[in-house]
């Protein structure tokens, strides 16, 4: 019997009606002659509510306790989906991370999956039951509950599909799939029928909130096709896979943008070995997530080091950098209200002219480029946040993303 | 180092402030040189809210899933108490029923504790940590979460104290302890300094909501002294223990009342062997909890069988009884709005005159007695609900319960 792995996000499970709707969808998949394993996130805003609750008790909640607290959200939604399916006469059992045996390392709040036991889940499937699995959580060697970090339920689903050797993994969410650009910014944006792992990864990392990048990476590693689709209707979504006809496709596949960007620049820093480490080690210790880093050295032998961070990390990063400047010399400059706009597509770097066209069309529309970074399949410009809609629409039109492949 | 077991109920953990208050209390106990294991209930109305949530998904939630769902309430409160203690610099760890190893039978929603592993909790104590344990929950042989039924956290605490050979168990709640009568009905009611297991058991079963009867029974079985006290102040509570000077104490120790009583009577039932079984077996199958049963046979050889039930079970019980009457003959009569008033005290039955005095004083105050039942240490009258305040106050004064022992 074919094995189907599905994952439903929190917005698809926000209330009793949606839970029953999801239960019906799972039952139909089973009734069509499949074995079904379903990974669920916590209902709606449950995780955020639990985080707020913890912070109402103490400013710095212990991480081990926090993980156990947060894991209750997925346990609740898993049991409720199972109850709804039982009520429809569908044999089902819910399993938590520890019950199933999703083994992780000991890094609370950002654990990595080490191994997944398949005995219990395999036994339940063999007994004709659907299995509802709590996403986002695992168990470490001590038997303590760990969580995989934000978006971890996507990772749980892909990892389970790999461990159970399922032919593919279906990720149900509140969007229809991957798009050529954010449809709220570009009305002409088109849903992508398929996309390669690398392209999806770049789009996800550059701000397209379709799927968690970690899960895409894992899918790529195991060559597991992943379909992202809506839980609210039955239209096909976007298939993320290795991609066979990449060479003959259009090069630019999508435009991503991310408006959560702030930049800190250290000017007049002495250019000596170890200086970058001296700056970024304390930022890492403070769990500041640094994105784009640019370093230049001027004629006087002084370095200028810039980096971007998300806005929630901005104040902390600025404070650390200013302290550093007092120790190692130099001054600190900063800018909030920046954004990143990226064009993503396999082969972008090897095909000539894309970067030039991108820079040219932004200049034509008076969009000033602050910083540029590139990867093999992506060109990113840091620009003013206010210029994002204009920039994204212009790039979408320039690279003809509104036309069918 | 002395070992102290404490249990905090849901009202003592209703919000972040109370959780911090409880955390401070636990820390003081530890700072006084004790090892501390704490059992917690779910915060405030969490359990009721989760039950409502399940019923919004389906009318008849699967019991296995329901137990796993409800267990999240205690997991949440345990982690929050642990976080608050960590924030105070107190080494602590929370453990769920499965993590600690509270092994139960497989009876979901009303599981019985079979055994408690002491390795993990002992190890944590040896490492200098306080341990916060989720009450109400355990794990069955399959590794699935079970719950002990309402009030089960009291049972968890007493069972842990027995397993860890603690010298006593402290139950913190929102009342000051056991009273000679409900202080809301009798302003002169006095807090009991101590009470025997049997007396507490009778008081608890007859409506005094101080502590769960199962926990008292378990305490008696292991001769574990239990102190019931308030978490809101530091005054001593009520010590439940074997009682050494029972013979010389006052016989009546307390007045209990329970206004959740309805009565069903089957009249003109043929008096033949097996008739009681024919009536009560289907009630048990429907999980109707029957309390007082009275059977009489009249001169015509017809039996009259009465029994009382709680009001939530009344409609179901009436329906079953009326169906039965159509099969086996007889008619059904019923009364809602009844109540039980009990006097409780060791030796009541063996000492002459208590029953007569009780009936006499109720008659003097025009309280009509519907049914009478007795145990070794209790005399209970079923009366009209409306007569309860008068009856309780009168009995409290008659047996001089407002005077010190």
Describe the structure.
The structure is a homodimer of 405-residue chains. Chain A is of the alpha/beta class and 405 residues long. The relative contact order of chain A is 0.10. In chain A, 36% of the residues lie in helices and 28% in strands. The first copy, chain A, folds into 2 domains: 172 residues, Carbamate kinase (3-Layer(aba) Sandwich), CATH 3.40.1160.10; 144 residues, 2-Layer Sandwich (VC0802-like). The first copy, chain A, contains 12 helices and 18 strands. The longest helix of chain A has 25 residues. In chain A, β14 and β15 form a beta hairpin. In chain A, the strands form 4 sheets. Chain A has an 8-stranded mixed beta sheet, sandwiched between helices. In chain A, strands 14-15-13-16-18-17 form a 6-stranded antiparallel beta sheet. In chain A, strands 4-5 form a two-stranded antiparallel sheet. In chain A, α6 packs parallel to α8 and α11 crosses α12. Chains A and B meet through α1, α2 and α3 of A and α1, α2 and α3 of B.
What is the CATH third-level topology name of the largest domain in chain A? Carbamate kinase
| CATH C-level category of the largest domain in chain A | Alpha Beta
Assembly annotation? homodimer
What is the terminal separation of chain A in angstroms?
35 Å
Classified in CATH, the superfamily of the largest domain in chain A is Acetylglutamate kinase-like
Radius of gyration of chain A: 23 Å
How many domains of chain A, as an integer?
2
Unreliable stretches of chain A (pLDDT < 50, length at least 5) are none
What order do the SSEs of chain A take from the amino end to the carboxyl end, as H and E?
EHEHHEHEEHEEEHEEHHEEEHEEHEHEEH
Largest sheet of chain A: 8 strands, mixed
- The backbone outline of chain A, from C-alpha atoms, is globular
Which percent range fits the helix content of chain A? 25-40%
Number of strands of chain A: 18
Structural category of chain A: alpha/beta
């Amino acid at each position: 019997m074919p094995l189907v792995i599905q994952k439903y996000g929190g917005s698809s499970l926000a209330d009793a009606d949606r839970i029953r709707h999801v239960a019906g969808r799972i039952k139909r998949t089973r009734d069509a002659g499949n074995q079904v394993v379903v990974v669920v996130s916590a209902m709606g805003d449950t995780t955020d509510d639990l985080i707020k609750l913890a912070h109402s008790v103490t400013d710095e909640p212990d991480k081990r306790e926090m993980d156990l607290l947060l894991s209750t959200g997925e346990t609740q939604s898993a049991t409720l989906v199972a109850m709804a399916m039982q009520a429809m006469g569908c044999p089902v059992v819910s399993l938590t991370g520890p019950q199933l045996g999703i083994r992780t390392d000991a890094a609370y709040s950002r654990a990595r999956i080490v191994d997944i036991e398949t005995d219990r889940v395999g036994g339940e499937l063999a007994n004709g039951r659907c299995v509802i699995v709590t996403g986002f959580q695992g168990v470490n060697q001590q038997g303590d509950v760990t969580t995989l970090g934000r978006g971890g339920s996507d990772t749980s689903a892909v990892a389970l599909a790999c461990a159970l050797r399922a032919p593919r993994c279906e990720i149900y969410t509140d969007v229809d799939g991957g798009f050529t650009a954010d449809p709220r910014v570009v009305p002409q944006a088109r849903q992508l029928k398929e996309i390669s792992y690398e392209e999806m990864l770049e789009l996800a990392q550059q701000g397209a909130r379709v799927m968690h990048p970690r899960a895409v990476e894992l899918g790529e590693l195991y060559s597991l096709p992943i379909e992202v689709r809506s839980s609210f209707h039955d239209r096909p979504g976007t298939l993320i896979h290795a991609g066979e006809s990449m060479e003959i496709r259009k090069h630019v596949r999508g435009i991503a943008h991310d408006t959560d960007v702030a930049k800190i620049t250290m000017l007049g820093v002495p250019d000596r070995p170890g200086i970058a480490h001296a700056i970024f080690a304390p930022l890492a210790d403070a769990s500041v997530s640094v994105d784009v880093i640019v370093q230049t050295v001027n004629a006087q032998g002084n370095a200028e080091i810039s980096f971007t961070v998300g806005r929630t990390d901005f104040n902390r990063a600025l404070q650390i950098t200013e302290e550093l400047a007092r120790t190692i010399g130099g001054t600190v400059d900063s800018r909030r209200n920046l954004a990143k706009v990226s064009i993503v597509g396999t082969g972008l770097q090897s095909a000539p002219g894309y970067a030039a066209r991108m820079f040219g069309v932004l200049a034509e529309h008076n969009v000033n480029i602050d910083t540029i970074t590139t990867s093999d399949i992506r060109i990113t410009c840091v620009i003013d946040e206010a210029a994002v809609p204009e920039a994204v629409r212009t790039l979408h039109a320039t690279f003809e993303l509104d036309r069918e492949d």
